[in-house]
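Supplementary Data S3. Sequence and structure tokens for construct A.
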Amino acid sequence: MNPTTYPADIVGEFGPYPGNAQVNGVTYDGDVVWWASDKRLNAMDPASGEIVRFLEVPAHAGTAYDGKHLYQVSEGHIHKINPETGDILSTIPAPSADDNSGLAWAEGSLWIGQYEGRKIHQLDPQTGAILRTIASNRMVTGVTWADGDLWHGTWDDDSELRRIDPHSGEVLETLTLPPDIGVSGLESDGQDRFFCGGGGSGKVRVVRRPNKKK
């Protein structure tokens, strides 16, 4: 079955920000959008785009929020972080040393993308053990869950957001980005928006999420 395909509806764009040339992972805690820029996590007001505070932690790839703590991929590790203090509370191994991409929290698990590996792993958040794996036919960047649907970003020759079957990996729906725009990180706000990291553009973009099919 061919997936339903639409052009991505970009409804907001913030940045670039001085001193932050790169946007890696993105997550949302219900108040601010956290995005990773190599050496720190930035808390951004989703309405104005203003950075309201930041945490100095290594932040090289995906970012997630479990309702209380932040999780941040840094090279071959995933750090659990106190969002108030920036303290690293614990660390688990990531599936690979240098291929980890997006990170999400759902169903009591971490979900991590593998860029060149073209996979999404469900991880035990206590140990980092791989619980199951979903294959993709494109390079995987950001990962997020929205209303029980699994979405991930892709970015190689072009970029798109894809809703996939969380069991088979079948692509069900795609939102295509303009040719000069890529997606590094991805997060749903739980409503009708995706927050998308723009990689080396230094930008965070907001894409409207299509209404869920009944």
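Construct B, processed identically:
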Amino acid sequence: MTSFYDLFTQQNWDRIKESIYDKSGNDVLTALSKSQRDLEDFKALVSPAAAPYLEQMAVQSQQLTQKRFGKTLQMYIPLYVSNECQNICTYCGFSLDNKIRRTTLTDRQLLKEVELIKEMGFEHVLIVAGEANKTVGVDYFKHAIELIRPHFSQISLEVQPLDQHEYKTLIAEGLDTVLVYQETYHQEDYKKHHPKGKKSNFQYRIETPDRLGRAGIRKMGLGVLIGLEDWRTDSFFTAMHLDYLERTYWQSKYSLSFPRLRPFSGGLDPKVEMNDRELVQLICAYRLFNEEVELSLSTREQEKFRDNVIKLGITTLSAGSKTNPGGYAAGKESLEQFEISDERSPAEITAMIRKQGYEVVWKDWEIGFTTSY
């Protein structure tokens, strides 16, 4: 059975990186003049040569986004259910070798989090956990989805990669969306950052979206952790992965995220720094490459940046996020996965969105719409 991994192994990281940095201003202008853009155009749009054309990129990105999505922003919130993890990852606060108190939410604690999240108005929730199959595996997620399903119109998952039949089990329970970040497509560096645990299996992780597509997931999210490797090259592979998936699993919808490495206790300094202007360039490049894909921006980013960038291509926004299990009931503790930059409440975020003339969308999907459920 073929997968994206077969296509990926035909690529050479160094040659692709060189071709991105070799792009010229004329290549950028050619890409900007097109109505349909390919992967070579994407290379030009994320290249250093595109920096002087950022304003033109932003104008086109805003127009394309409003044409497809209108002046709307969909809201979601993460629900951290466990910080137990069997992996060692150099950049994550949940890493096995990080000496923190481990906890997994009980039914009572989970429902308390749901109660507090609902009070903030959210209909779309993202379940997040460390990767610990024995204690927080498919049975736990199946039960959690059953428990919270009556309270939300859309349930997403960001946990360890699963097998195809396991995804089918969770989809049947009401799972709508799965986010799985490759972290980096640089295979050698991937091994350095994931020396122990199931996550160290590069091929299993990169083939996860294929298993999701075969399982019939309605929507899946992709991305890399910006800071681990050259962001332009990693983003190109993300775009290539998206292009492959849309052609192969056309029934599914797709979203992209672009998290920048954030500090945590004892954490890793970024190998590659990406400034705000470069992140705007990437957001616009993704939109010019793909008009349909949803672009998500989390509370990792600072208030001022989020306020200024939402008009340029973003379609989905988190607010009021806590990154520790039980965080909405207990408040901030030393159990968080990473530090939050934008700590404004959902009410403050929605006021900011409306002030800019955009409509806040709390619900755009109903579990009952999913035919497999």
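The CA atoms of residues 211 and 363 lie 27 Å apart. The chain is about 40% helix and 10% strand.
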